[in-house]
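Re: beginner question about structure tokens

> Can someone show what the tokenized structure looks like for a real chain? I only ever see the sequence side.

Sure, here's an example I had lying around. Input first:
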Amino acid sequence: MEHTEGGNRTAQVTEFLFLGFSGIPKGHPFLFLLFLAIYLITLVGNSVILILIQLDSRLHSPMYYFLSHLSCLDICYSSVTLPTILVNFLRQQPIISYNDCMAQMFFLMTFAGTECALLAVMAYDRYAAICEPLRYSQLMSRRVRVPLAMASWLWGLLDSAIHTALATDLAFCGANQIHHIFCDVPPLLKIACSDTYVNEVALHTASVFVGLCPFVIVIISYIYIISTILKIRSNTGRRKTFSTCAAHLIAVIVYFGMANLNYNRPSAGYSLGVDTLVSTLYCIITPMLNPLIYSLRNKEVKGALQKLLSTQEKE
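And the corresponding structure tokens:
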């Protein structure tokens, strides 16, 4: 199929219909309230983390610098999908225009790829702090951490640009029903009527470089971290040292676990209900959990929050 022909056929599809919640039409009011609550918790939780890091000098360290980027990512991540889902619940018509679908997919994949890279960078930060404490200020100086954070964003942006450019060349031949709750590469490939070989190769390649490579960096970092912790003689010292990376480790397990379920599914795929559940956990629940994980597992964050609240009460 020639490029021009694929482009003409793609242009015939002006909007897509999401089928993710089509099986429970009577539950839409409840789902609207549930997703609205999740979105508000995500916005408030991550915004509080950002404010605390900005205001409390005790949190002006490399670890919290990367955490601020993670919180910003989670706000953007949720804002790409949830507002559209909420609007579709209200109007009882889960649709999205072709251009908005491509834009949603672009930003979604940008933030997903960036988060993978950023979690790997945060693992390296924990390695440097625990395994190389005397060189930590040098290894994580401003001249190092700022480029690392920027590289994470560029990493996600480049990956997303490739997938989006390939997706805009797909032909849909009038098929516009997406078995999903938002626009993503796998469900779009399922309904495309043009050759998707290049798209699939790009998707599998990205799963290695964007997903697997950061995960391997995390694993290697924690092998060194755990090895160093085990060398500490006192139980109190081991617990205290491990507590500095416990929140990050939980966040990594949750995020990469959900990402693996979402993208590395069987070739036959899951049922629509399971697909919807996995996608909800990956793109909607995970951004809400990160601020909870870091605030509940981190004494410095809890201390900064108590300090801020006590200051507000005095005023």
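Each token stands for a local structural state, so reading them left to right follows the chain. Residues 3-314 form a domain with the Rhopdopsin 7-helix transmembrane proteins fold (CATH 1.20.1070.10).
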